[in-house]
Amino acid sequence: MDKLNMQTTNIVDENIKRIGELFPNCLTERLNDEGKPEVAIDFDQLRQELSKDIVEGVEERYQFTWPDKRNAIRLANAPTTDTLRPCREESVDFDNTQNLYIEGDNLQVLKLLRENYLGKVKMIYIDPPYNTGNDFVYNDDFSQSAGEYMHNSGQEDEEGNRLVANTESNGRFHTDWLNMIYPRLKVAKDLLSEDGVIFISIDDCELKNLENVCNEIFGESNFVANMIWQSTAGSNTGTDIVTVTENILVYTKCRNRFEFDGKLTDDNSFSFVDEYVKERGKYTIDKMDRRRVAGHYSEALNFPIEMPDGTLRWPGGTTERNSEGWNYLWSKTKVQWGLENGFIVFKKSGTEWNVYNKRYAKVDNEGKPCERSIPFRNLITSDQSNTAQGTAEQRMLFEFRPFDFPKPTSLLSQLLLTAVRRSENSIILDFFSGSATTAHAVMQLNAEDGGKRKFIMVQLPEETAEDSEAYKAGYKNICEIGKERIRRAGKKIKEESPLTTQDLDTGFRVLKLDSSNMQDVYYTPSEFNEQKLFDDNIKPDRTEEDLLFQTMIELGIELSAKIEKRSIAGKTVWSVSDGYLMACFDEEVNETTITEIARQQPYYFVMRDSSLANDQVADNFEQIWEEYSKDTVRKII
C-alpha cells in the first residue's frame, strides 16, 4: 500500500517535470540541503535553448519588479502540510450542502483548494485590502526559510496578529502590498477553469500595480475591462477632486474561451403582437435596407422586392435600381422565406413603401429559439448599486452595521449575471470574503432562476475592534459575522419565496485551517529516536473526520462531496461520494470489515498503518483485495 504524502503538490517539482519533457537535455542532478540527490534544471543549458541572445544582467529591458518578488513567487509555489478541519457545529446542513466557508490564511487555503478544485472555478471575485494606509495586509514573513514558513504558515505572530498595519510612512508601503497580493493571485489562477473569469475590486491607490501584477499572472491578452463603479452618489474621498468611484479589474483565464453573458432584454423593448406571439413572443421591427460603402456593398443584395400594391421597391426606397450603394440585409432566398413565414412587414408612409423585418423576443431571424440580451457596460452607476444599499442590507439583517462601506448584493449580482447567468452549476470563489456578500448574491441568484451554483468563501478570522458595534454585539471576529450573514440571508430568501426555494441550498460546510493532523515524525523521522518512530503518528486531538478531510484533499475529492458514516463489523467506515472513497481509521480492524469494504469495490481505500488487528489480518489483507476488488487504490496514513 502507498503512503499518503499529507501535503500539497510541490509546484516547483511540477514545473521541472514540464521543462524536462520539453528540454530533457536541461535536466541535471544536484545534492539538496540534506545532502540527498534531486533533479534540477541546468539554467545555462536552458538559456541556450530559449534564446540566441541572452537577456540578463544589467541590460535594459521591460520588466515589473519590486523587493522580494522572487520570494513571493517561491511562496506561491511552495507546498503546505496544513489541512482543513471540519466544524459541524458551526455549519448549516453539513451533510447535504455544496457550499463551503473556510477560515484561515487565504494563501494556504488556496494551496489546499488547488488539490481539489484545480481548473474547476468558473468565477472569482475578491475585494482585497486597498492599501490606503489605514488597512492591513497579510504578514507573510520572507525572512524565514521555506521550511520555517510552511511550518508557521497560518499561525499568529508573537502578539497574536496575522495581519499587520501598512501605513503610508512604511518604507515598504507598496512592496508589502505587492508581496501579499502576488502569490495569492498566482495560486488563484490555477483554480480558474479555462473559461473562467476573475473580478478584483480596487481603488486608485494600487490600481496600476494590480494591473501590472494581473498582466504578468493572467497575461495582458486576457485583460477584459476596468469596470468603473460609482460607489456613492455623494462625496467619498479626496479634497481637490472628490473621488466617487472604485475599479473592478476583469481578467479571464483564456480570453477566447470565455463568453460573457449579456443583460436580458426586457419585454418593453418588444411592443408589437401578431398571430405568432405564443411561440415567438412580442416583436419589434428593423428597416431592411442600409447604405453601404466601399467593401461592405454587395451586388447580390441589391434587388427589388414587390410591395403589397404590386410596385417594386429597390434598396434605398427607389422604384428603379439605386447606384448609391444601398443593400438589403437579407438575400433574395431569405426574403422569400421571411415573406412565407411572417418575418417581414410592409409599411407605407405617404406614397413611399418601407420594408421591415420582425425581430421577435423568443426566436432569432431564422425562427430558432434564442435569448435576447445586450452587453453589460463597463460603468456601474450609483443608481444601480451603491455602498448605501450595502449598509441598508447589513442593518436589515443585523440591526447594526458590522462593516464600513460594504459591497451591496446588487453589485455582486451584476457581476454574477455577467459571468455565470447561463452557468447554473458553476463554482464561485471569494477568498477575501469579508461580510460574505458574494455568498448572499449567489443564493439570491439561485433563488431567482433555480440554479445550483456553489460558493466557496475564504476569510481570515480577523478580530473585530473592541469598540466596534460588531464586537459589542458578540461577534469576536469577521468570520463569525460572515457565517451569521449567510445564515440570516438564506433564511430570509426562503421566507420571501417559500414555494420556489424549497430545494435552495442555503447551507455551508465550515472548514478551518490548521496544522497537519500528523505528528512531526511523519515528515521528519530522521529527527526522532527509534522509540518515537513507533509512536502514533497522528496528533491526539484530531478526529477521524479530520483525517478524512485531509485524505480528501490529497486525493483531489471536492470538499463538498457527500459523506456517509457507516458501521461494519463494529468498526466505523467512512464513505465519500457514494463509495468512491472508503476509509477506516479505527483500531483492531479485522478481516470481516476489510472483506465487506472490498466487496463494495471503492476506487480508493484508506486506513491507518496501525489499524489492522493482528499479523494474520495483515497477511491476508492483499489476498482479500485481490479477490474482491483488485483495482481499488489502497493507501495508508
Task: Write structural notes for this entry.
The protein has 637 residues and is of the alpha/beta class. It is 30% helix and 21% strand. The protein has a ten-stranded mixed β-sheet with strand order 4-24-5-23-22-6-9-11-10-21, sandwiched between helices. Helix 16 links the parallel strand 27 (581-584) and strand 28 (604-607). Helix 4 (106-117) packs parallel to helix 6 and helix 11 crosses helix 12. The longest helix has 19 residues, at 173-191. The protein is globular. The termini are close together.
Number of strands: 29
Low-confidence stretches: 142-161, 528-534
Order of adjacent strands in the largest pleated sheet? 4-24-5-23-22-6-9-11-10-21
Overall pLDDT, averaged?
A: 87
Give a short account of the largest sheet. Answer: 10 strands, mixed
Helical fraction equals 25-40%
The rounded Rg comes to 31 Å
Count, helices: 17
Structural category is: alpha/beta
* Content of β-strand: 15-25%
**What best-fitting shape do the alpha-carbon axes yield?**
globular
Q: Report how far the terminal alpha carbons are from each other.
A: 10 Å
In short:
With 637 residues, the chain is an alpha/beta fold. It contains 17 helices and 29 strands.
